[in-house]
Amino acid sequence: MKEQIQEILEEARRSIPSCVSDKDLEELRIKYLGKKSSLSDLLSKIGTVSKEERPQMGALLNKTKKEIAQLIEQKKLDLHEKTDTSRARGLDVTMPGRPLPIGAKHPLCQIWEEIEDIFINLGFEVAEGPEIESEYYNFDALNTPSGHPARNPQDTFYLKGGKLLRTQTSPMQIRVMEKFKPPIKIISTGRCYRVDKMDPSHLPVFHQVEALMVDEGITMSDLKGALDSFVKRIFTSDTRSRFRPHFFPFTEPSAEIDILCINCKGAGCKLCKKSGWLEMGGAGMVDPAVLEEVGYDPEKYTGYAFGLGIERIAMLRYGISDIRKLVTNDLRILKQFQ
Amino acid sequence: MKISYNWLNELVPTHLDIDEFCEKLTMFGLEVEEVVQPGKELDNIVVGKVISVEKHPNADKLTLCQVDVGKSEPLSIICGASNVVKDILVPVAKIGAKLGDFEIKKAKLRGVESFGMICSEKELGVSDEHSGIMIIKQDIEPGTPFADAMGMNDSIIEVEVTPNRPDLLGMIGVAREVAVMLNAEYEHPEIAFEESEVKTEDEISVIIEDSEKCPRYCARMVKGITVQPSPAWMQKKLIASGLRPINNIVDVTNYVLLEYGQPLHAFDYTKIKDKTIVVRIAKDKEKMMLLDDTELKLHSENLLIADAEHPLALAGIMGGLDSSISDNTRDVVIECAYFDPKNIRASALEYGLQTDSSYRFERGMDPNSLTEVIDRAAQLMQLTGGGEISSGVVDCYPHKIEPKILPLRVSRTNGILNVKMTADEVENYLNKFEFGTKKASDDSFEVTIPTFRPDIEREIDIIEELARCYGYNNVESHFWINRIDNKQKRTVVRLAKNHLISLGFYEVNNMSFASTEDLNALKIPENDFRRNIVELANPIGEQFSIMRSTLIPDLLKNAALNLSYKFENFKLFELNRIYLKEREDTYTEPTYLTGVIVGEFDPFYWKEKQRVTSFYDVKGVVESVLSKIHCTKNVTYKVSNQPYYTNDSAADIFLDGKTIGSCGIIKDDVLQSFEIEASVMLFDIDLSRIIPLYNEKAIRFKEIVKYPPVLRDIAVIAPSDIVIGTSAQTIKSVAPNIIKDVRLFDVYTGKQIKQGCRSLAFNITFQSETLTLTDKYVDKLFDKIVKKLSLVHQIELRQE
Lengths: 338, 800
Hints:
The complex is a heterodimer.
Chain A: H1 2-15, H2 22-33, H3 38-44, H4 54-87, H5 107-121, E1 125-127, E2 132-133, H6 135-138, E3 164-165, H7 171-179, E4 184-193, E5 205-215, H8 220-234, E6 241-248, E7 251-260, E8 277-286, H9 288-293, E9 302-309, H10 310-318, H11 331-334
Parallel strand pairs in A: 1-4
Antiparallel strand pairs in A: 2-3, 4-5, 5-9, 6-7, 7-8, 8-9
Helix pairs in contact in A: 1-4, 2-4, 5-10
Chain B: E1 2-4, H1 5-11, H2 18-28, E2 31-36, E3 45-55, E4 63-68, E5 75-79, E6 89-93, E7 98-99, E8 102-103, E9 107-109, E10 112-114, E11 117-118, H3 146-149, E12 156-160, H4 171-182, E13 195-199, H5 200-203, E14 205-208, E15 216-223, H6 232-240, H7 248-260, E16 265-268, E17 276-281, E18 287-289, E19 295-297, E20 303-306, E21 311-314, E22 318-319, E23 332-338, H8 341-351, H9 356-361, H10 370-385, E24 388-391, E25 394-396, E26 404-409, H11 410-417, H12 423-432, E27 436-439, E28 444-449, H13 459-470, H14 487-502, E29 506-507, E30 513-514, H15 516-521, E31 534-535, E32 546-547, H16 552-564, E33 570-577, E34 580-583, E35 586-588, E36 591-598, H17 615-628, E37 635-639, E38 645-655, E39 658-666, H18 668-673, E40 680-686, E41 710-719, H19 724-733, E42 739-748, E43 757-766, H20 775-793, E44 796-797
Parallel strand pairs in B: 13-24, 14-17, 29-33
Antiparallel strand pairs in B: 1-12, 2-12, 3-4, 3-6, 4-5, 6-11, 7-8, 9-10, 15-23, 15-24, 15-25, 16-23, 17-20, 18-19, 20-21, 21-22, 26-28, 27-28, 30-32, 31-32, 33-36, 34-35, 36-40, 37-38, 38-39, 39-40, 41-43, 41-44, 42-43
Helix pairs in contact in B: 6-7, 7-10, 14-17
């Protein structure tokens, strides 16, 4: 009996794959699996097999039936796939679909929006102010005395008539604090200007984001926490920062902010000039003289401020090494930022 | 929980009118859901005494009653209820009374006149009982207004008691809370009575077999009591609280339940076998018949009150039928117990029996007030039914439940709430809640939490109570966001940018500097506002000597650059400030949105011939951007005279009659000066004029019109000088409310059309918001449109 079963299986293995139509396949199904098939016949004769062999034979019969059923099922699928393709003759799914337009925001503006959203998430309000400023808001109120080198025409753009182009977004701090009582929690963003020759790391027109928080009990820890939250979000969650003592007229203590090089993670590379750290901007606790200037009680209120360059952040994020690439408006660049 | 305001005022005079009181109560944490003043609607309804009952001469089921309503002549009233008999007191709605919307009038029923109506409880809103007329069981003078007699001149305050506050399920608990709220005192009922010489413990013994499920059980006896209706004052309060008076014994248990929140049960003493009460779990499959005639098959999780042989009650949920009080009951055993809330909840749920009793036990009653409550019940039973109160309480309380003692820090309280309460204030509030206080330090107390407050488990729970006393609304609010942020501008800017990007535009970013040469290249005349330039004193170069007063030159330079990189068809925009000098030393920095379409608008598609880009492409961009930022109303377009556009291929854009920008095709010689060899379309919009008008909150849902729109096409021959915008407006003006849309779908000039004219075809949508438009009506409007077009513009209907 075992040989008979084996024979039937061999035959089925040959005949089923070579079958070409549904009709032929159905005939084969009846032949091998139908009520009058030789397999059914063998099954009915299983009683004639010796008691010891009987379970083994039964199992073999079932296994064979299963395999044949699978072969038929597979063949059925193959047959249908072929008809489908032929039916849809004329369609080439590899041809391009109707081209719909795709544009992109400028990479700088994408980063700018992202920065705004991070700070909005952290509870900051966004303040915007004029780019054409007075000396008072840009320097005097920010504790930068006349005679300070930053006020030189070698550094600051002046208009005919005496006004200037803001050199930082900090004048907005003064404008907001003049108008509103604490608590204050804002960022001010926008264009700033400094007299610089255009080179790979300088543009005379650039963008800043500056954060300011003033309330009772604001400490340097709040400054570090806000800054860390920001850099971890705009870069990666393992980004670390450090503060280096520095001088700014309107903060005391003042610091420059470095972040661990996002490229080499501190090992030292070309990007960080082997230092392991990247300079990001300035920060500090708002100088009591500034608070006094806007009529806040510096004994009651404290605050922090920090400013970062948006171009700098965009360059680090995208791996752009020449700042001028951000103002060429070359579609070969812009199209990379879809 | 229903609170009778009259009753509450007996316990703690509020000196407040009902609205003021309810407002205060809600703000204190007991939310008032509804206030019902049942007496208000019961004018002209009085108590009447039925003097005689006769059969109606012409109807089997009706009776003719003579009812004494306190006047010299009784009223003759026809009644259909079967329970009307001589000498009972009933509520009578006299002529003029109103029951809901139904006014009682003199009526003739089968030839006999009736001067009023005898009412059921349901008709008067007393209960849902409607099987017969209401029978008043108290002794009341006929003619007394029904509302007075029933104590319905009251305000019933329905409050939501949260599940953590079982102490508020009784009037005394509510009074305690109200006293804290009003900083007043409340009165406990005075409990005093004489006990007989019979000792309770000789008459009845109590055995608790499961002290976990029943930690305490108290019993007392009143012997020789008369079962009778309870006095009017008690009935009034029961009715006011939503319970129906039955007899003095049942009423007293219900009354004390309402008063203390503590459920009680009364057994007929003679039915307690062997004078023994056993608190035990049920045997498996043990049966018992409840008061409401349902038979339960019990198991070992159910707690029973039983005598030596049989169950007497399903503990804490419902009494059994066999031991219940009947009219013949003389000796009563009062049960007052504390059951484990979890067990009661499980059994009540299992048998679907939510009773006033189970509702309270499953929330947790006060185990330590049971003797006071049982004394109160005994006192009231004697008061309402006489008899003698046995001496002493049988009190089975194996393990006393002690009140919790919690520490409370004043500084912590003030710190969490940002308030400045002194230790004295805190102590005063706590004592009002009847929390015991012992000073532990200058800043802290040891607070003893009475057992009627199972909800207070931690320091923070006490702080919550103190916050309620202080008043949530007296806590300072630290609010400081949204004073400075210009969300409006951010939203408009982002919407506009995102929209342009989805149309295939790339954003560019140019520096703010320019030179006057740029303005000259655009042929901008000397008197144009863009000549009010901002000049730098120390520029870094001649080409950077001014601040740009328009974004156009930079965009054209960007176009030229990218053409040089072999891009043929592309679209760029910039959204940035321009800088203008307003007066000496004052400047403005408006935000502009400027864009160019270089070459063809549509991307190349292998399947179709390239569509030729026209002025209408750039206008389409402008229209879609403006509509994305909600700037559609009062926007109009007129032919532009800007010097940099090709003649007849540009439009100025107006908002409320003032120009806000332009769009069109750039002139060839301008393109040449920027070294551009391609066609360029431009749009240039002053966004600063639009941003202040943007209001996202203006979007309101409008109900979809139920009535179907009717669509009609109209084809006309119009003189060529009539602009399409005007003719569409004229069509709409015929019926502005019904003509919802006029859409141009064809413009044609050719042989068949006479010289100097063109054929226009519009698709018009008619739709009414109030009715389905008939063809006839639309035909009429259509004729009107034809007439008006002809009259105003000499536009004629096209004849096929």
